[in-house]
Every structure is written in structure tokens, then in C-alpha cells.
Amino acid sequence: MIDSAATTEGGFGPSEPAAVQLFNITKRFGDVLAVDDLTLSIGENKFFALLGPSGCGKTTTLRMIGGFEDPTEGSINLHGEDVTGLKAYRRPVNTVFQSYALFPHLSVFENVAFGLRRTNVDKGELERRVAEMLDLVQLSGLDNRHPAKLSGGQQQRVALARALINHPRVLLLDEPLGALDLKLRKEMQIELKRIQQEVGITFIHVTHDQEEAMTMADTIAVMNKGKIERMGDPAEIYEDPRTAFVANFLGGSNLMPVSVVDRAAGSVATADGTTIFVPPNSLGAETSGLRVGVRPEKLNVYRPGSGDIPPNVLTGRIMDASFIGVSTHYVVRTSTAGDLSAVVQNLTGDRFAQGEEVSLGWHPERSFVIHDD
Description:
By secondary structure, this protein is an alpha+beta fold. The protein has helices spanning 58-66, 108-117, 123-136, 152-164, 182-199, 210-216, 234-239, 244-249, and strands spanning 20-29, 32-42, 47-51, 73-78, 81-82, 93-96, 170-174, 202-207, 219-224, 227-232, 254-262, 267-269, 275-277, 290-294, 300-302, 312-323, 327-334, 338-345, 357-362, 367-371.
């Protein structure tokens, strides 16, 4: 079920044009449909993420916004102006690629100044603006170094400074953190968000990394097969994914087919007749084709006979227990819903062993409902 109602993104009033608007954009490469009739609006001064697996159309969408690909059908507006068909250099956007594409023979200063030199800015203005950009990306004092002498994170900052120095109105980021190791990637997630807030322009970030998107973006659009399946702020999408694809792509999910028992009470039944409860307003009008989902970290594991177990309870046996530092990941085999995952914080030394009989409990409000389409 495509979240067609969520193809506009807030942050602009009725008289203020969106930073980016796509109208019925379709892109074909021969017989391959890469982007399928996509309509999307992105507000000014937003950090917006296009999230999805390889081949879902997110990079193609970004390249069409940047002018590197022409849509087969549809039109593209930037700040109210139709730019469909305009070359990339004529659009008020700039792009940071995963490869950074720095000039190896030029210093940091000259890499950042490259775009300004092409506009014949006088020397004093050029030096002032380069210094401001290097300060923004926290590279002051490295003006004379060459890219080969920089770390991966520093090279990325140079690429950002070079992309921002001509004051684009939209910055496009094509998997910019993919070449960094985990520690640097996490540091740069925070830095990218800080830079976006300081420069106050729209960032559109393409990534397949769910954590990256959730850390930085104000709004996430989850793409699948050329369409947007779900769009909203990170917490909203995570708590109410609406489709099985989004539920499983954006974090792990336990999904159980159910049928409605009492809509007003929010009660549903699994295939073997076990009753569980969900928020009543999540059920909609359907009576079949429903699945209840619960995130692994929302499940608690109890020994049989424990008190204070929440209303939703399934019993099973632990098939695997993986200690991962701050938490333990359990796989519990139930007769009701098959194998379920539970992630339990290690707040005490008490853990459960493989083969142990346990109960899984969770509160109704921690459930979400997927309406199969």
C-alpha cells in the first residue's frame, strides 16, 4: 500500500513555493522503469532523505533534480521555477558525491575556491569566503594541504565546502558517507546536520542506511520500486510504517497475520486464536489481510509465572541468545507466530539461556497494524 497522501512535505506556506517540487516524474532506461509517476514537494531549509535499497530509484530521482538525468515524463520545479531540461550548471543546486571528486593536484584552499574563480570574484572576497567555508566545516588551518594528506572525513568536509561556497539554494548528497568507516560516519552524521542548520538551505540526502537517515533527516521518504511507500518524520515512520516493506526496511519487525475480533476494543486474533490488542484507531475498516507488528525492542522477555506481564502475551522457547553489549538479542520460537525477535537491554546480570521456556509480553500501544494491499 503506497502512502500516496504523504508525497508533500511541510515547512512552507501557501504563498511560499517549495524548495523542490516533482510533478508526475517518470524515468525509464529502455525497458526498465526506474522512477514511477513520482509527485513530491520538499520545503525550504529542510534536511530531507530519500531512503531505500539499491535499485529503488532514489539516486535516479536525485540526479533528475540535479540536472544529470532528464525525466522521461513530468516536470521539476526549484523554488517555483520550472527547470525541466535545464543543464546542471544552470540550476541553483550543487552536489556532493560519494567519491568526493576532489582535485588531487590542488590544495584545500584551491579546491574550495575553484567554483568562485570561475565567477571572477575579486581576490579579497574570494579569500574571505573560502576562510568562512573552511571555518564552517572545521578545516581552518589546513588551507595548504592536498587531498592525499587528509583523512576521509576531512576530504568529505572539503567537498562540502566546495559545494556550498557558491551559495546553492539546494544541496544534493549522493551517499556521501558511504566511503567512511563506522566511527567517522557517525561523527559526520552529526556534522552534516549542524552544517545544514547553519547554512539554512535544503539538503536532499540519498542513502540506503536507515540509521543515517533517521539521525539527520527532518523528513524521510522510503522508496521502493520507483515509488514512495511512506513519508514523514523519522519517529512517525518508525512507529507506524504502514507497509511490510517499510516495517522491515526501517528497523526490524515481528509481523503476525491477524483477523479482527472487536474493532472498538482493538482486539484481534492470530491464526491459532490467540487474542492480542492494538490501538483501536489503527484497525481501519478492513476485516482481513491485516498484520500486527511489534518492534523487537518493544518486546519484553519473562519467565513463566512472572507478575506484571503486559496484556499481549505469547509463549515460546529461546532458540538463540546473542549478547551484543548493551543488549541481548533473543530469537523465540512460538507456536502462535513462528520465530520472533526480542532485543532486551542488559540492565541487570539476569539473562535467558538457549532452550529456556519464556513468555513474550508487550503493551497494546506498542503495536502497529499493516493493511496488506
